[in-house]
Structures are given as C-alpha cells and as structure tokens.
C-alpha cells in the first residue's frame, strides 16, 4: 500500500502541525514524479537515509525544498546519517533541519544545504554526536 493524496501541488505547512515545519510538502508519489523514479525507488531512498519522510495528516510526506529540481539536495544524505548517528529520529531530524537559525544563509539548516553553507550544516550536525 502506498500513501497518496491528490498530487496537484505540494501541501502547505500551514495546515500541518509543527512550528518549525517546512513551508511545502510532497507526498511520496509526488517525489517519485519529480525525481522521475518509481515509488519503490523513493521508498528505498528513504530506507537508505538519502531522503527523509515523516507523517503529516496520516500521510508520509517529504519537505518539498529537499527535492531540488530533479535531485535530492546534494548534502542531505550525509546530514541525515550524522543526525541518525546522534540519535535523532526522523521527526527530530526534520525539526532540526527547519529550526530557525539566523547565523545560516536562508535561516534554517535545510535551506543552507542548498547553498555555500552546506559544509557548515554538516559540521554542526556532526557536532551533535559529541
């Protein structure tokens, strides 16, 4: 069974719980379409910690800005593994990625992953394990 909702657009974070949630969400079928992959490959990306999905409104969703164009953010898998090594579950990892941080370009670690501060985000995630 796959989780699905109409895939016309990313859901907005306004109707979903969490003060540090991303602004937009994609369902797994939406991610598969955007990345031009099968849904089973998307599930594999999540199992391999190359992508993260959490339940919102009973449906597994992926933060939309972590799927850039037709790829997953370059440094996301490394950060997800570092957060897992530090004991973070998926919900906590999403919370950390979207925690406001004015010292990072874009204001959150998730946004900074797409720019020049990706290494800084990885360094901070690594420091959590100590």
TrEMBL record:
InterPro entries: Rv2175c_C, Rv2175c_wHTH
Domain annotation DNA-binding protein Rv2175c wHTH: ranges: 25-66
Superkingdom of the organism of origin: Bacteria
Residue stretches making up the Rv2175c C-terminal domain: 74-129
Pfam families the UniProt entry points to: Rv2175c_C, Rv2175c_wHTH
Region ranges (Disordered): 1-23
GO MF annotations, alphabetized: DNA binding
Identification of the protein by name: Helix-turn-helix domain-containing protein
Organism of origin: Micromonospora auratinigra
High-level lineage: Bacteria, Bacillati, Actinomycetota, Actinomycetes, Micromonosporales
